[in-house]
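1st attempt posting a full record on here, be nice pls
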Amino acid sequence: MGSDEQNLKIALIGNPNAGKTSVFNRLTGLNQTVGNFPGVTVDKKSGTYPLPDGNKAVITDLPGTYSLYPNSSDERIVLETLLNQDGSSYPDLVLYVADANNLERHLVLLTQIMDFGVPIVLLLNMLDVANSEGKTVDENQLSIKLGIPVVKVNGRTGEGTEAIGPVILQMEGVNCDPFLNVEPFAYELEQEVKKMFGFTNNYRALLTAHNYKNLDFISAADTGRMDHLVSELKFNSVGLQFDEIMARYDQLHPIMEAMVVHTKEDDETKTAKADKILTHPFWGSLIFLATLFVIFQAIFAWASYPMDLIDGGMTWLIDAAKNVLPAGLLSDFITDGILAGIGGIVIFIPQITILFILVSLLEEVGYMSRAVFLSDTLMRKFGLNGRSIVSLISGAACAVPAIMSTRTISNWKERLITIFVTPFISCSARIPVFAVLVAFAVPDKTVGGLFNLQGLVMMGLYLLGVIAALGSAWVMKKILKSKDRSFLMMELPTYKMPYWKNISITVVQKVGVFITNAGKIILIISMILWVLASFGPGDNLKNIEEQTRTEYAQQSFSDTELDNIVAAKKIEGSYAGILGKQIEPAIKPLGFDWKIGIALITSFAAREVFISTMATIYSVGSDGDAESVMEKMRQERHADTGELVYTSATAFSLLIFYVLAMQCMSTLAIVKRETNSWTIPFIQLVYMTGLAYILSLITYQILQ
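the predicted structure (as tokens):
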């Protein structure tokens, strides 16, 4: 049981909703890395697990799948990992996680893996939930019947996980006996495939025959030879898949009848009773909308206190840096270029964290699957399916993983439409922009004695994105044609108490990735912006300062006020000002000035950069009192007319633009990766930006 790195390689496999993530987090803790499987964008989550003998195992959490007949690229990863014995991910041992509450369905995949002969241990998870639902399982007899070790575990509490290590060590060199004799299904073809690829295992040969066209390790020449064999031997793949799965159920059913005791009728369980309300067409939908409403209220109401603390901390840090560092360009670069830019994103971490916590909580308790079920009928009217709701809700965190999650949608038309419209859902990167502009344009007061008005407007912005997404999906449904049949197959998991360690690890990882990725971009752009705003062609800035001080010398301005006037004039004459002035004619009808123009350009790298850009621009030459970006924008006036630059009309126009515009390079890159074409992301960019421009224009012209 070795590997090139002398670490045991373990694959963690199971159905969706089996509790794999809880077990994985229990075994590996924070010793995890997230990458990609070779050649694909599917997440590869691995972690180290200390064994009782002092050695370490590397556990890879494979995507959840119902069988080894995949309908999506996520599921295909599991099949390819097990079929390709020469691959770097091929496991020395499999830990199979099964939900004790839905055991018969969850063991079908187990029996398929058993037929590979790979060492395997069954982890019987969520027995406490099964017991509460009136089911008991005799794990000792189950182990005898299946011929493999069975370990009772509770991924949420950690109970039983200490027994996994010793069992793993006992499995060294112990191969699993096949569960089902697959020779009768396609004996002649199996033998030919075994000769062609040097296989010794019948089931490996059979699965290769079923899936050879979608396996990366099969060469073009071997694909041609397989085409000939399949045709010559009249191999009926679909029919034989059905026969095999039914044969597995036929063998499993009597085992389950003897091993599992039911003390309650199915409709008497707590989950069944709850689902009568939560999956009801009317009441369930109402509860789902109310849940979303609470999330958006929480983003504003709960996050205000930590945001105030962070804001105060950043103000103190910038002031302290200015007092300690000697005056000069380097000090200005550090305080006004780097710290001001970072402060523009750090302050919004509480809101982003709350969003991740609440979305993860819905996943943990089992409610997200109900959202898929409830949404399926509605989604199909717009050319989507129930699984699309997962991508759309995930898009509220970040469009990149949301678009990657569309791989679970087997119908290519529904998947393409979902990919196209997901960026309309306002992601967490837009929260900084929304927070500043909503706070700028909407008073912070309570409506009806309960609802925060700013939270209501925030939810309205998200709903606008949803309307734009569904409307665009409906149009695409009419344009795209597909003969593929669409279906939704999924399991509604048992409701359970959340495992807070799962939520904590998920939030830490996602917020960490958000900060790290955004931080790199923000630092680079903040530095570039500081340079652009601090320098100009030739002696332009020097001349501007001299002319301005001479012009205003006779007027009754304090030194501070005169410094601010000089700073504003110098920014206008800087490289940044020149760039902004070039695009100002195009965006002026929307109520945007050249400073917003610069922010629009830089925020294409990442939406949240808008705030750090404004912070950088307004920090250059400021009076040093470290006012917030919002306050600086609120006080900004046109130098010639004295009128406010930023009004409610400007703020709402900018909000509409950011709700609808494609403002993210990473999203375009992942769309290109998932569609294998630049055509879709280009159309996406033109369509979303055009729609944003038109509706932003209408908004400003009406409100000004």
